[in-house]
Prior knowledge:
Number of strands: 9
CATH class: Alpha Beta
Strand content: 15-25%
CATH superfamily: Aldolase class I
Number of helices: 10
Number of domains: 1
Order of helices and strands: HEHEHEHEHEEHEHEHEHH
Helix content: 40-55%
Low-confidence stretches: none
Mean pLDDT: 97
Largest sheet: 9 strands, parallel
Shape: globular
Amino acid sequence: MSIKQRVKDSITENKLIAIIRNVDESHIEPTIQALYDGGIRLIEIAFDSSQENFLKNTSELIKSALALRLPDLTIGAGTVISLEILETAISAGAQYILSPSYSKEIIKNAQKNDIVTIPGCFSPSEIVDAYSDGADFIKLFPAHRLGPDYIKDLRGPIGRIPLIAVGGINDQNCLEYIQAGAVGVGMGSNLVNPEIINRKEYHLITNLAQTIVNKVHSNQ
């Protein structure tokens, strides 16, 4: 089995992507360990172009995450909105990429490097076009604007396309999106809370992660 296929299988199996954004390098390792201890096996480390030296800094965070060598942990890069960011993510070792938008150019270049792609789409046309261009999954973003019923409506005409709901997902509504037909969900500050991290209360992240992991798998 190829590495790319293993990453795709991990996403389908684990269902929950924890999104890390604006976490200081000094906190990255204990944060990832806390998420891992709570059952998280998919982590996205997001680029933030509003920050100084964001390419270098995010690259280092990805490398630090991979250096932990936690079994079955898959590390992806988020907010990949340019070829420069894509190249940085690939060089750092990211195993999959997510974007808030859909770019055929990014998908094609990621494919050349056997990287799993998850572009952000909203309308049925965007979803079909991105999947036809080779996207492995579609990030339905911002999912909370139309809710789980939108996913139910999409499953009829385009049920073959795997959707990951991101945006406004929390411990209260995550299962609704899975039950509606999403293959997974992505969760940012509702799980990886910067205030909790700054207080170093990592056990709270572990506890919440355990609750959410159990919930998204309770539909099986």
